[in-house]
Design goal:
single chain; 210 residues; alpha+beta; L-fuculose-1-phosphate Aldolase; eight-stranded mixed sheet
Length: 210
């Protein structure tokens, strides 16, 4: 567990360093065998050591000297529902959270929306943090997607591993900022459905080297 725990902590620190999260908010996890390793609840990442990371089984049992993030439940449920999820990042990034607080779904204003699996990025309905209701709402918003907004809360992204997941989270916040700025200019001009279908097809091989 030690190597993966160190990677989880490094990713949590990096999401703060790049400005997509602040303080002890947000959380990071990585799949580990029959469970996952997740950041602890309410601890500043720059004060943590790898041993503070918590192993949680898929039946919700925690192992370690700390309590897991209060959001461990939706991490568990994403891993169970989405076999392709190797790591998950949740953050209260400024622009994504601003959109989420207005329950705004991101439409195809930019072709990079397709990077996250569809022609839109949905916003999950609001529910109290740490609850099964929140997890259920997020799983619905993540259907055929790798990211979603969380109403009055923030955003969540998953990828194949911690490196890809952090990169996707940075892209997600960048798109959120762009869309926020577009909204200041008036009604957004959107790409047509046939173009988004072409882009989605092209993204099947995006970033893959032969």
């Amino acid at each position: 567990m030690s190597d993966l725990a160190a990677e989880v902590l490094a990713t949590a620190r990096q999401m703060n360093a790049v400005g997509i999260n602040r303080g002890a908010a947000g959380n990071v996890s990585v799949r580990d065998g029959d469970g996952f390793i997740i950041t602890p609840t309410g601890m500043a990442y720059d004060e943590c050591v790898p041993a503070d990371m918590v192993k949680v089984s898929l039946d919700g049992m925690a192992q370690g000297c700390r309590k897991p993030s209060s959001e461990w439940r939706f991490h568990r449920d994403i891993y169970v529902a989405r076999s392709e999820a190797g790591a998950i990042l949740h953050a209260h990034s400024p622009f994504a959270t601003a959109l989420a607080c207005q329950s705004i779904e991101m439409p195809p204003f930019h072709y990079m929306i397709a990077r996250f699996g569809g022609a839109t990025i949905r916003c999950a309905g609001y529910a109290t943090f740490g609850t099964q209701a929140l997890s259920d709402a997020m799983l619905a918003a993540l259907q055929d997607r790798r990211a979603c907004l969380m109403a009055h809360h923030g955003m969540v992204v998953f990828g194949a591993d911690l490196k890809e997941t952090l990169a996707l989270a940075v892209e997600f916040e960048s798109l959120s900022e762009q869309y926020w700025r577009v909204l200041q200019l008036g009604a957004p001009k959107l790409l047509p459905a046939d173009e988004m279908a072409r882009v989605l097809e092209k993204f099947k091989d995006y970033g893959k080297q032969s």
